[in-house]
């Protein structure tokens, strides 16, 4: 376990992600951590982080780049370790909330069994997946979150398979809360994090987090890439309540020009390898399904 040594580690009075950490410039995961830190507002948390870029962030013992207590777990066991911590906290009357913070590799793939099991039992965990669409910490291999056409070290000619729909999978567990968050829509993202922190039971949040190294994009353009992904419809921003009600939070303009700019700004997509017509057809099909699911959500809280 690595603990904080400055200010008040459990109440969010200090920064969650401290200055001087070793994260890459423009790292979307770093931005997401700052959003979580903004959402804490005095809430007490303990983090569990499996093998991923976020665990390298910690730095060398005995110092820590995190401002809260943190447990490092194996790749597959973040949700299992978090379960034990959450149950112990409840037994001791400790109000500390447990937050699992994992990448797509430790969520979509290697950690899926533990995540699904904890969700099925409705363990009192907030599980956050920061999705950079690759195994960023081990050389940039493809994961089941990698989109079609993206080149990685294990798909040098571009991935062939579609990206796994992790939100639909988690919503199928009928857990209290499932939501996608956009780093380009901070008020909505902060609200969702605060809501998830305050709820009980298993909650699942998903963030698209650009990785300049793996995406071969400019570090300063990460937020704009997220904005383009949302605006083009490629990354839907919505939430699913415990009763299955779907609320779409950000309405996309479905612009093909925006979609083209998104792919052009990333070196991982070779020119001509991504057929925009096919991508648009896939997006349209996904949104048709999403709108059908949201047809009963008349109180949509939309942030365009």
Structural features, described:
- This protein has about 300 residues and is α/β, with parallel strands linked by helices.
- Helices cover about 35% and strands about 15% of the residues.
- The protein has one domain: 3-Layer(aba) Sandwich (Rossmann fold).
- The protein has helices at about 30-40, 55, 80-90, 105-110, 110-120, 165-170, 185-200, 210-215, 220-230, 255-265, 275-295, and strands at about 45-50, 70, 95-105, 125-130, 175-180, 205-210, 240, 245-250.
- An 8-stranded mixed sheet has the order 2-1-3-4-6-5-7-8, with helices on both faces.
- Helix 7 (about 185-200) links the parallel strand 5 and strand 6 (about 205-210).
- The model is unreliable at about 1-10 (pLDDT under 50).
Order of helices and strands: HEHEHEHHEHEHEHHEEHH
Radius of gyration, taken over Cα atoms and rounded to an integer in Å: 18 Å
CATH superfamily membership: Thiamin diphosphate (ThDP)-binding fold, Pyr/PP domains
N→C terminal distance: 41 Å
CATH class identity: Alpha Beta
Helix residue percentage: 25-40%
Instruction: Report strand order across the widest sheet.
Output: 2-1-3-4-6-5-7-8
**How would you describe the oligomerization state of the chains in this entry?**
single chain
Main sheet summary = 8 strands, mixed
Mean pLDDT: 92
Q: In the CATH scheme, what's the topology name?
A: Rossmann fold
SS content category: alpha/beta
* Global shape: globular
Number of domains: 1
Q: What is the number of beta strands?
A: 8
CATH architecture: 3-Layer(aba) Sandwich
- Which regions are unreliable across 5 or more consecutive residues at pLDDT < 50? 1-12
- Count of DSSP-assigned helices: 11
Q: Approximately what portion of the residues adopt beta-strand conformation?
A: 5-15%
